[in-house]
């Protein structure tokens, strides 16, 4: 449903996006991750037909964003990171305005408004003026507007920005439901754990270049290959135990707590078993010796350098 081939964008000598290649199928939920200025919004604006690429092309539902923008807009729902709400309009009026903009036949407006308000859990706010809505409700109203023409592909730029924890959870559940409905989602966000929770694919971009892309599990597995994140806790003599661990293991990223530490090592499982035996024999009384699962935040920190395009 989304295909990018050598997609590039430059502003004079400044490269905002360089040779982006990406393929997403129907039903994929893709988390687009990157620091500020990495090229996420540039990519999204090109996919939304709001900017032309300098080189390459992208296709949404088989339609070229550069040669068939009108056809793209029929199958694409775009939710920007910042959007305006017209004060003095009730929620249903706001949605009917956009139904007209999407060229939805007037006879369908009333039923469509009811459907998207139900889907986004805003039906009780149908008669409310848009300026009275909370930030979370405004985000859901913008998403409801984005769904009016039943797009097959949704491109959402930082949809959880500025939301409180409860509103983020509600939005995540809604995006999960849309994915189950077979829609293809491309979602940019800085809230990495929540992306991993509902996205089946992720991509990490920095300085306009896609550094890693694939299924969540494959990226996690690749980042963890031949390396282990260990948490070790002991009942007594924690400082001495730490010295033993540092002597036995080639440890990095050591984080010390009151009764133990977390570290990264490339030492084999056999070497780790030998260490555990030594901790027991030397009387440190270990109470935890566990492998920690690598998460998206850790991979993001390892892959990126905090640079901007």
Give the domain tally.
2
* Helix residue percentage: 25-40%
Radius of gyration: 24 Å
Number of strands: 14
CATH architecture of the largest domain: 3-Layer(aba) Sandwich
Principal-axes geometry comes out as elongated
Assembly state of the chains shown: single chain
CA-CA gap between termini:
27 Å
Helix and strand sequence: EEEHEEHEHHHEHEHEEHEHEEHEH
Identify the CATH class of the largest domain: Alpha Beta
Strand content: 25-35%
CATH superfamily annotation of the largest domain? P-loop containing nucleotide triphosphate hydrolases
How would you explain this protein's 3D organization?
This protein is an alpha/beta fold. The protein folds into two domains: 2-217, P-loop containing nucleotide triphosphate hydrolases (Rossmann fold), CATH 3.40.50.300; 226-299, Alpha-Beta Plaits. Helix content is 37%, strand content 28%. The chain contains eleven helices and 14 strands. The chain has helices at 40-47, 69-75, 91-101, 109-119, 135-146, 165-180, 192-198, 216-224, 238-248, 269-281, 296-303, and strands at residues 2-11, 14-24, 29-33, 55-60, 63-64, 76-79, 153-157, 184-188, 201-206, 209-215, 228-234, 251-256, 260-265, 286-291. The model has no long low-confidence stretch (mean pLDDT 87).
Please name the defining characteristics of this protein.
elongated, 2 domains, six-stranded mixed β-sheet, alpha/beta, Rossmann fold, four-stranded antiparallel β-sheet, 309 residues
């Amino acid at each position: 449903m989304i295909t990018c081939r050598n997609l590039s964008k430059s502003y004079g000598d400044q490269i905002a996006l360089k040779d982006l290649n990406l393929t997403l199928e129907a039903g994929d939920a893709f988390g687009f991750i990157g620091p500020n200025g990495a090229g996420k919004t540039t990519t999204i604006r090109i996919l939304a037909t709001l900017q032309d690429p300098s080189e390459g092309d992208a296709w949404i539902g088989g339609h070229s964003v550069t040669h068939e923008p009108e056809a793209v807009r029929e199958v694409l729902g775009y939710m920007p990171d910042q959007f305006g709400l017209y004060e003095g309009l009730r929620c249903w009026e706001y949605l009917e305005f956009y139904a007209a903009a999407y060229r939805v036949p007037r006879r369908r407006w009333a039923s469509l408004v009811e459907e998207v308000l139900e889907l986004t859990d805003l039906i009780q706010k149908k008669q409310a003026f848009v300026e009275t809505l909370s930030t979370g409700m405004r985000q859901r109203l913008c998403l409801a507007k984005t769904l009016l023409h039943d797009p097959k592909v949704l491109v959402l730029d930082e949809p959880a920005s500025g939301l409180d924890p409860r509103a983020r959870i509600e939005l995540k559940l809604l995006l999960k439901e849309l994915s189950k409905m077979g829609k293809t989602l491309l979602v940019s966000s800085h809230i990495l754990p929540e992306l991993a929770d509902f996205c089946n694919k992720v991509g990490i971009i920095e300085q306009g270049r896609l550094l890693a892309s694939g299924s969540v599990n494959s990226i996690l597995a690749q980042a963890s290959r031949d390396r282990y994140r260990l948490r070790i806790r002991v009942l007594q003599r924690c400082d001495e135990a730490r010295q033993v661990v540092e002597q036995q293991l080639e440890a990095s990223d050591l984080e010390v707590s009151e009764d133990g530490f977390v570290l990264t090592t490339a030492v084999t499982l056999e070497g780790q078993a030998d260490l555990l035996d030594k901790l027991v024999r030397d009387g440190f009384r270990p109470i935890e010796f566990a492998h920690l699962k690598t998460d998206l935040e850790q991979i993001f920190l390892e892959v990126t350098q905090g640079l901007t395009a």
